[in-house]
Amino acid sequence: MLATPYANNLAYAQQLDREDPLGHFRQRFHLPVQPSGQPYLYFCGNSLGLQPKSTRQAVEQELLDWQNLGVEGHVQAANPWLPYHELLTDKMAAVVGAKPIEVVVMNTLTVNLHLMMVSFYRPKANRFKILIEADAFPSDRYAVSSQVQFHGYDPATAILELRARPGEACIRQEDIDRVIEQHGEHIALIMLGNTNYYTGQFFDMKTITARGHAKGCLVGFDCAHGAGNVPLELHDSGADFAVWCSYKYLNSGPGSLAGCFVHERHAYDRSLPRFTGWWGHNKDTRFGMRDDFDPLPGVEAWQLSNPPILSLAAIRASLDIFAEAGMNQLREKSLLLTGYLEYLVDALPAGKVKIITPRDSAQRGCQLSLQVTGADKTLYQRISAQGVIADWREPDVIRVAPVPLYNTFTEVFQFVEILKNAL
Ligand SMILES: *Cc1c(COP(=O)(O)O)cnc(C)c1O
Q: What is the pTM of this model?
């Protein structure tokens, strides 16, 4: 592939596409099509990833086995349902940089966040606070507040917020360090969104975890915007837990099941408080319907229910693509693709568009959040009318996520042309 410096013209963008070793993956996805027959410029994979063409077959296989086998499908299906989730574990673990014993696909994201806080938010008289970002995703905030209240504390005093400095959008690492240093002894849990859904900031999990642990805090991350987007290296980060959904960068369909990580160091700890169900119980005696709960080793012990196979099938189809493409290669293209978007946005008329996502590519994923001076939603409506699907956040931010699996350099170029004309 061509190295930077980039060039600001269509022919150059097309050349990058021709030389893109991952370019062929685009054909493996269904691209939403405009009434004109042209595909949309789809930059919303951070909200709902596109459907792999292989998903239908994977789901139909399970429908067919259910049709033909009924309950026997649990053991006789082409992919038996009883252990079906295990088919996903290695590939999901590779996507998030974890060991198989640390990863399971189960429930949905906010459910997993609650389950993790049941185990890893254990407030005590002098240590009951949770540290979150001031602009945390609403569901995370509701989950954290309700956990705090559940334990009898007041969110107003128990929730500590990390805030960017006035005039800045992202939170500086030194400010995170300072807050942990100053308040760490009173913090029971550090729980950050990584990558931040609004600014696209990718926090340094390893540093945050180390500083948190040094102060006796437990540390977890919501990686909804990180999984399939950035190299998470969850195991090496040392984080106690992480949760993420599969319908954003992981292209597994609306509301599809979520991922959950619990660090290996907790894999055999039976003393952890936990909400349990039969799917977390020893597989050999699960159907013996014994009264006493015998937890599986690792994160599988947190499973509650037998999982929806149709959703697992969709995730499996998607993970096969990730395994084929490889997270390292995807990240390599992503850096180039988002770097190109950044380069083109920087060439727009001065003062119009400000990139609030970190300029250091190590501190972001594929998403750039563009703050448009003096804009309102009509700007977004104008670019939508030109075939762009991105995401508008009040008051003045467009989130644009060029996804390396299916977006092209040409699309990035076309998007910025449309934006330029709409400004
Ligand atoms: C997308 C997202 C959610 C959504 O939660 P669900 O339980 O899947 O509906 C929650 N938190 C963050 C940070 C997200 O990005």
A: 0.96
Which residues of the chain are in CATH 3.40.640.10 domains? 60-323
Rg over CA atoms, the chain? 22
pLDDT score of 245 more than 50: yes
Q: Which atom of ligand 1 is nearest to the CA of 225?
A: 15
The architecture (CATH level 2) of 10-30+326-422 comes to Alpha-Beta Complex (3.90)
The tens digit of pLDDT for each residue in 196-234 reads 999 999 999 999 999 999 999 999 999 999 999 999 999
Which among 353, 335, 367 is positioned nearest to 416, based on CA atoms?
Answer: 353
Contact 246, 259 (CB under 8 A): yes
The 10s digit of each residue's pLDDT in 279-309 is 999 998 888 877 789 999 999 999 999 999 9
Which residue from 108, 140, 196, 252 has its CB within 8 A of the most atoms of ligand 1, so it is best to mutate? 140
| Residue 118 and residue 151 in contact, taking contact as beta carbons nearer than 8 Å | no
Q: 140 in ligand 1 pocket by Cβ < 6 Å? A: yes
pLDDT digits (tens, 9 = 90+) for 352-388: 999 999 999 999 999 999 999 888 889 999 999 999 9
Catalytic positions, written as ranges:
137, 222, 247-248, 399
CB distance 179 to ligand 1 below 6 Å: no
Q: Residue 168 region, left (φ>0) first, then alpha (ψ -120 to 50), else beta?
A: beta
Residue 304 in contact with residue 280, Cβ under 8 Å? yes
**Residue 139, ligand 1, Cβ within 6 A:** yes
Atom 2 of ligand 1 has which residue's CA nearest to it? 224
Residue nearest to atom 1 of ligand 1 (CA): 224
Where in the sequence of the chain do the CATH 3.90.1150.10 domains occur?
10-30+326-422
Q: Which residue has the higher pLDDT, 30 or 374?
A: 30
* CATH code of the domain occupying 60-323: 3.40.640.10
Which of ligand 1's atoms lies nearest the C-alpha of 222? Answer: 13
